[in-house]
């Protein structure tokens, strides 16, 4: 007498959008005096009379990782060992868009102030009665030598990204609004009434699209160049005498990149603390004269605009888009690692960024109610999006199909402008951007069909 093992399914949903943990545990069948004839567990799991309607097939499409653990076929007279089917999803199925903060709102702290105070009290409690430990770099004036190659990679990835975007902009159309800072990637501009620029009320929120440039896709975030990152803070009367360079370049310079046009102070001995905020440099006269350092890697240069050549065919365009995505991810991933060791500050009211342990004293903040602060910035710890803004744009599901419709706005997704340009050029969509792009949502073909959606 043959019998199939009954299955018990337990589903634990971490959110309403995706399944986080699923286990299928078979129960041991009844054992009779005669031999049992049955199919193996692997064949049983593969059995699917109606593909696409089973739970297993749906989980395979919705999850990014599928693990099937099973034991080899056991003798028929012994009990079966339970097999576990674990489905894990590292990225949610759908995610909300980044929140838009108005100019009257202050940016939230990356870590709440109460948690920072609690962590400071715990550190003071643990260090009470203990000998002081030596200050590690870069707080002692030296650079972290293990991060120097990473700084060169980040700088070269930024140059590669800019050069490739100049080429892709000749193939992929990017539109920019003439009144606000919104852009759109696609054959035509989107019809959404989201303009907040000048005279937006007369145009009823509609955009007036023009051609975009690389600066519209990669927002220029500049910072003051510091000759000595541990020196005195920049005063208000020095704001015009100190050069301003891209913040990512300044971060790479402080991490160990040597650029002849931007000199910086490199210490060979640790500083000597004489107070909480005061220090003196150690005597380096006993050391031999410093030898000019040779760059660890060749530093790339940007291509001038007249020398930019568009890709010849579709295959070259796809390869260029894949290389651009890799440069984008490498720059963001490397900059995030550098920010863990070299602090970066951002104003909580305006987009001003300062690379250094403490912000500058220039009173050039023009955000909401800056008169009450006398133009001073409200410095706080910066996050990666403050240093490299992703610049989210609307995702076009089908470039060759119908343009975006105003009534179906809630069905469309968003993605960073660089990612959307590369995807429309033929590159594969990275997994970390799929939740906000809403690729698994069916878009209605008409307004009447959209009204029928629950």
TrEMBL record:
Residues 176-261, 346-431 form the APO domain. GO terms for molecular function: RNA binding. It holds the Pfam family APO_RNA-bind. This is APO protein 2, chloroplast, putative. The lineage of its organism: Eukaryota, Viridiplantae, Streptophyta, Embryophyta, Tracheophyta.
């Amino acid at each position: 007498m043959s019998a199939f093992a009954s299955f018990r399914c337990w589903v634990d949903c971490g959110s309403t959008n995706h399944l986080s943990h699923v286990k299928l545990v078979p129960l041991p069948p009844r054992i009779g005096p005669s031999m049992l004839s049955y199919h193996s567990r692997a064949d049983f799991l593969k059995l699917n009379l109606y593909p696409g309607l089973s739970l297993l097939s749906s989980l395979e499409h919705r999850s990014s990782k599928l693990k099937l653990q099973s034991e080899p076929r056991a003798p028929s007279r012994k009990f079966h060992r339970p097999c576990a089917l674990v489905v894990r999803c590292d990225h949610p199925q759908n995610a909300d868009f980044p929140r838009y903060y108005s100019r009257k709102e202050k940016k939230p702290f990356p870590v709440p102030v109460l948690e920072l105070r609690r962590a400071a009290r715990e550190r003071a409690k643990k260090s009470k009665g203990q000998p002081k430990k030596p200050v590690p770099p870069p707080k002692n004036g030296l650079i972290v030598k293990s991060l120097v190659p990473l700084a060169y990679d980040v700088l070269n990835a930024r140059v590669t990204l800019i050069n490739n975007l100049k080429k892709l902009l000749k193939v992929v159309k990017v539109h920019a609004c003439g009144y606000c800072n919104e852009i759109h990637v696609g054959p035509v501009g989107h019809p959404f009434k989201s303009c907040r620029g000048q005279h937006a009320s007369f145009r009823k929120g509609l955009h007036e699209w023009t051609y975009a440039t690389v600066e519209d896709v990669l927002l220029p975030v500049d910072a003051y160049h510091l000759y000595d990152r541990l020196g005195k803070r920049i005063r208000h009367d020095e704001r015009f005498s100190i050069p301003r360079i891209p913040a990512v370049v300044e971060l790479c310079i402080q991490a160990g990149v040597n650029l002849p046009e931007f000199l910086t102070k490199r210490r060979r001995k640790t500083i000597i603390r004489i107070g909480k905020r005061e220090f003196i440099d150690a005597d380096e006269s006993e050391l031999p004269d410093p030898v000019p350092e040779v760059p660890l890697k060749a530093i790339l240069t940007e291509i001038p605009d007249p020398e930019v050549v568009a890709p010849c065919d579709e295959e070259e365009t796809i390869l260029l888009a894949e290389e651009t995505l890799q440069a984008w991810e490498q720059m963001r991933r490397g900059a995030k690692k550098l920010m863990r060791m070299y602090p970066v500050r951002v104003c909580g009211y305006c987009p001003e960024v300062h690379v250094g342990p403490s912000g500058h004293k220039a009173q050039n903040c023009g955000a909401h109610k800056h008169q009450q602060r006398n133009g001073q910035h409200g410095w706080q710890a910066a996050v990666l999006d403050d240093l490299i803004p992703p610049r989210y744009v609307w995702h076009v599901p089908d470039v060759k199909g119908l343009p975006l419709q105003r009534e179906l706005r809630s069905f469309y997704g968003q993605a960073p402008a660089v990612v959307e340009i590369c995807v429309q050029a033929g590159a594969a969509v990275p997994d970390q951007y799929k939740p906000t792009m809403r690729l698994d949502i069916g878009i209605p073909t008409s307004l009447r069909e959209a009204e029928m959606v629950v």
